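Notes to self, GntR family transcriptional regulator:
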Amino acid sequence: MDDFHSGQPIFVQIRQRLIEMILASTVAEGEALPSVRQISADLSVNPLTVTKAFEALVDIGVVEKRRGLGMFVKEGARALLMAHEREKFLNEEWPRIAAQIAALELDVEKLLSKADEPESKGSENE
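result:
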């Protein structure tokens, strides 16, 4: 599970994994997240790195620290994260993707219809 890539700091990658857990409802609102110790042991990283990831989630208002109990997903966190992740996608990733679509002169309608095709068809040339 410690398959980190060098393109981003480890704490950012851990934060993203925690975000994905909340968005997928693996950890529901009101529930405790895995402890700093547990995550640091599972991923073989420094506990301070994990703490930094948690602090980033506290800063955006989706996680709260309960003294002596751990970190908990706040009520409304999933909706807040969904809005945050959508905004991040539209501002950071979409411009690059849109530019690539334009550079490759892809037809948007064909592209969208391909997205709806079952994966079992494989890649067909048109």
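- Strands lie at 63-66, 70-73.
- The first strand starts at residue 63 and ends at 66.
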